[in-house]
Amino acid sequence: MSAIDATILIPTHDHAALLPTAIASALAQRSASFEIFVVGDGVGDDTRQVMTQYAADPRVRFFDFPKGERHGERHRHVALQEARGAIVCYLSDDDVLMPEHVAEMRHLLADVDFAHSTPVIVGPDGILVHRPADLARPEILALISEGRNNFIGLTGRCAHTRPLRPAP
DSSP readout, the chain? Predict the structure, then answer.
């Protein structure tokens, strides 16, 4: 069994000003052990400068990759090869996690391999918008398949298990 409950993966490209808020929310997790992987996809010097403030924290690692295809998904895969968490939680560099997010995802993933929490979006006017999506409903799957709506984003909502030993 893994000694760490979760690896929180934060992909980033160009949000240096917002990144400290995302990292702070990850560091504020309660009731779970975790490591944080900030995966840079062609970041600028401003992001590298932000990451220096976390250099002494052993829970935070920065992976500085050159700009990759699309949104750097391959870089995330490379970084996750070093993950020690039993699960992987995703957090966008411009979003936040609630303090019990990792603990709740760990609980949800006890018997399944993928979990997705209900998205709540804060609009520019400060109004909360709840966007529930039941993936057991065919009409929701149709919206996703048709590209009309993606209820499953990486913004602090999804998590999955990971193999505890390398695949053969």
Answer: --SEEEEEEEEESS-TTTHHHHHHHHHT--SS-EEEEEEEES--HHHHHHHHTTTT-TTEEEEEEPP-STT-HHHHHHHHTT--EEEEEE--TT----TTHHHHHHHHTTS-SEEEPPPEEE-TTS-EEE----TTSHHHHHHHHTTS-----SSS-EEEE--SS---
